[in-house]
Amino acid sequence: MFDVVIIGAGVVGGMIARKLSGYNLSICLVEKESDVAMGATKANSAIIHAGFDAAVGSLKAKLNVRGSEMMENVARELGVKYRRNGSMVLAFNDDEKTVLDDLLERGVKNGVEGMRIIDSDELHRLEPNITDDVKYALLAPSGAIICPYELAIAAVGNAMDNGCELKTEYNVKNIINDGDCYLISDGENEIRSRYIVNCAGVYSDAIATLVGDTSFSVTPRRGEYMLVDKEFGTVVNHTLFRVPSKMGKGILVSPTVDGNLLLGPTSEDIEDKSDVSTTAPGLDTILKSVYETIKNPPSRSVITSFCGLRSTPDTGDFVINVPCERFVNAAGIESPGLSSSPAIAEYVAELLSGAGLVLEKKEDYNPIREPSHKFREMSLEEKNRFIAENPAYGRYICRCEEVSEGEIIAAIHTNPPARNLDAVKRRTRSGMGRCQGGFCSPSIVSILARELGIPFENVTKSGEGSIINFERTK
Which end of the chain is least crowded, N or C, by CB within 10 Å? Predict the structure, then answer.
């Protein structure tokens, strides 16, 4: 029997697992997909928001500002790249400037520091590639960027290193409260736990229903993105937003911590909780907005497009509560969920404590995790010493992103272990460059087969049903 089972291994579930692993508790993190960070966490804007957009007094506002304050230290402890590049909300006319005035006032009430509205001359000095049509901007220096799936993987790995158990491909179908504990079943296997935390993203309303909580519903809000080659990663320095609407913060232009340029997302409410397809109209919408925002957009250098689903609750705010005994919702976590995730973990721990869970600090808890990109950031002399100890680091597998065999092997054997091609990709960036895996994928399949001790035909792209090879031809 576990003390706590956390359902959903995205960035919120991962952060909660990491927080709880600092106490003398038995914890299990369950995920219906083949790997962690497979839902909204792997496909979002990668922004640590300053906190000026959410309604004053809302959970979103409180946890965004607190999470933003925490994130730099969390990223440092987990060895995750983080850059406080600041953000701008752009206004094209005086009517839109009134929205900036409102956002500034709201941000001050939310506790965001350092914000100010700048005029055309200053914003164009700071961002010379913004079009001349932009007249004003709300500047928020505390805005930042991070890699969301890298953060989630590191948080889950750190939790596992501190004793948390991870079960992937465990799709929760039923929950029964027998009075002393919960019986959690995927239809074949059963887990017992005293407490449950629901972090199931777009499926969090369905999980809540299993314990009788029908107080909220979640609508998937689809957002399409385009990723531009690193050659254009410095076109802008800040994260550039348009004036927000009721559907979200609009289409942004932002650098990424890995040196690319990110464009998007669109915003469309849909019914299908698994539809992550990209569309020609969606991508056209992104380009139209980008052409209005920056001069000479590098549309010919887009190397990939992707789509994510945001968990939009009908409550208008995060659903973080205790609807029944020993069950905590961390549901409907849409934007700014990534920014808020470490603060959400704090809040959920407080709710669990209030629900009777004893939180006794673990004396040997270690919050530090080695960076996964340590090798590529070394000096030439350091790399040579590293290669002398392990020759696998001297063989580059992914030329675009300069990923060595040693890093891929490490990803396969480090918590949470990579078990397929996309899992290796998320941990090492192999396959994320210009050729999008055209060169390195066959080699990575061979490495996975060798390290996992399985036939190469059994190596998948992203878990069950994603076969890459059927048989050997030569």
Answer: C
Q: Does domain 375-458 have CATH number 1.10.10?
A: yes
CA distance 260 to 227: 7
Every domain of the chain and the residues it spans:
83-144+218-310, 375-458
At residue 87, the pLDDT reads: 98
In this prediction, residue 471 carries a pLDDT of 87
Element (H, E) at 321: strand 319-324
Helices (H) and strands (E) in the chain, counts: 12, 22
Catalogue the E-assigned strands of 87-140: 87-91, 116-119, 136-140
Q: Which of 317, 332, 311, 60 is nearest to 213 (CA)?
A: 332
Take residue 430 and report the two structure tokens written for it: 């192999």
What was the pLDDT predicted at 245? Answer: 74
Alpha-carbon distance of 224 to 278, in angstroms, equals 6
Cα–Cα distance, 266 to 225 (Å, whole number): 7
Which 3 state secondary structure label does DSSP give 223?
A: strand
pLDDT greater than 70 at residue 351: yes
Mean pLDDT of 271-277: 96
**Cβ-based neighbour number of residue 133 at 10 Å:** 11
Q: Would the pLDDT of 253 be above 80?
A: yes
**CATH topology (fold) of 83-144+218-310:** D-Amino Acid Oxidase; Chain A, domain 2 (3.30.9)
Let me know if 170 is exposed, middle or buried by CB neighbors in 10 A (0-12, 13-18, 19+): buried
pLDDT exceeds cutoff 80 at 247: no
C-alpha angle 175/17/164, rounded to 5°?
85
Token code pair at residue 375 = 């090798």
The answer to whether domain 83-144+218-310 and domain 375-458 are alike in fold is no
Pairing label, strands 27-30, 165-167: parallel
- Asked if 412 contacts 418 with a C-beta cutoff of 8 angstroms, the reply is yes
DSSP string computed for 167-203: E-S----EEEE-SSSEEEESSS-EEEEEEEEE--GGG
Q: Indicate which residue of 49, 124, 238, 373 is catalytic.
A: 49
**Cβ within 8 Å of residue 300, ≥6 positions away:** none
- pLDDT tens string 154-167: 999 999 999 999 99
pLDDT tens digit sequence for 47-91: 999 999 999 999 999 999 999 999 999 999 999 999 999 999 999
413 given a catalytic annotation = no
- Helix segments in 429-474, DSSP class H: 441-452
